[in-house]
Amino acid sequence: METFIPRGRITGPILPSFVLREKLSPGAKMLYALLCNHASDKDHCWPSHKFLAQEMGYSVSSIKNWLGELTSARLLTIHRTAYRSSTYVLLRPRAGAASGISSAPARGQSNFGYPQANFGYRNNSRKNLEKLPPLPPKNRATPSRATPARVKRGGGDFLSANSIFERLWAVYPRKEAKELARSAWHRLWRHGEVPALDVLLGALDRFRASVSWNKEHGRFVPQLVNWLRGRRWLDEAPEAPASPVGEQATTPEKTEQVQRCMKRLEDQRRADPALEAARPAFEAFLSRFADGQRKRGPAWGLWSLLHRQGKAPHAGEADTAMGILDFLKDCSFRPMKEAVA
Fold first, then answer.
1. In what order do the strands lie in the sheet with 87-90?
2. Which of 1, 46, 123, 263 has the fewest CB atoms within 10 Å, i.e. the most exposed one?
3. Class of domain 17-131
4. β 76-79/44-45 pair status
C-alpha cells in the first residue's frame, strides 16, 4: 500500500491547531483557514463574500454568519471600504491559544502575521502553482476560438428600425396591439432577423390577396405581433381567391331577395303625402319645447308614428315642463293607461 507523507507536500488551506480549540462552528474554522490561505505572507486579504461562498460551497449568508463568529472570537477584524470588497485583518490569537506560534514575525510580515503550521505550511503562491498546477496547462500552440463581438446598435439604428416599423404598420390590415408588435419588431431587428422592407411588403401583398385573409371580412387576419413572431414572411405564397375580393357566386334566389330588399327600401324612402302635409303641425308642436331643435330627429320619428295611429299631439297639448321625447312617450302610453283605469 502506497503511503503519503503530508509534510511539505500539502497545498491549500491548512487549519491551525489553536483554531481547533476555539469554541467555533466547523464552518467558521474552515473559513478562517481559507482566509489564512488568501492572506499568505500578509496579515490581511480582501476576497468577496460571493467568492468565499463559491470556494466553500455555502451561501453568502453563511459566510456572513461565520465572519461574525470569527470577529467575536477576536481572530479577525473587518475594515469595510466603499466600492470594493471588505478587508479582513488577521489578529494575533490570545496567549493561551497561540502556544504553537513563533513570536518572531516572518520576513516581510507584520507583527500580526499568519501563524504557520507545525509541519511546514505551503501557500498557494504563483511559484507553487506553477510547480503543482491544479489543472493541465493549456496548449499555447492551439489558439483559442475568439467569440464574435456583439454588434451594439446605436440610437440612429433604433430610429431607423422604428421608422420602418411605422411604414409596415401603416399598410397592415389589422390595427391591434401596436406596441406589442413594435416590441417584437425591435427584438428581431437587434438579432438581425428582419429582411428588407420590400420583402415584407411583397409577402404582405400575397397574404392580403389570399382566401383566408379575405374570409368573413378579415376575421382570420392575425395580429402583426403574431405575424412577426411567426416569421410569416417566410411562408409559401398563400392561395389567392378565384374571384375578386368580396364577390360571391349569385343564384336566382339571392337575386330575387336582393330585388325585394331594394323595393322595400324604395317604398320606405318614398314620401307620404299625408305625413308631409302634417309637417307644419309638427313644427308648431316642436317649437313649444326647449329641447325641440336638439332632438328633432327622434321627435319626428315618434310624432309621425303617433300621427299614423291618429294620436299625434298638437301644439296646444304640449306640456313644456317635460322634455319633448318624454312627452311623446307619455302620449303613446296614455290610451293604454286609460283602458286599464
1. 44-45, 87-90, 76-79
2. 1
3. mainly alpha
4. unpaired
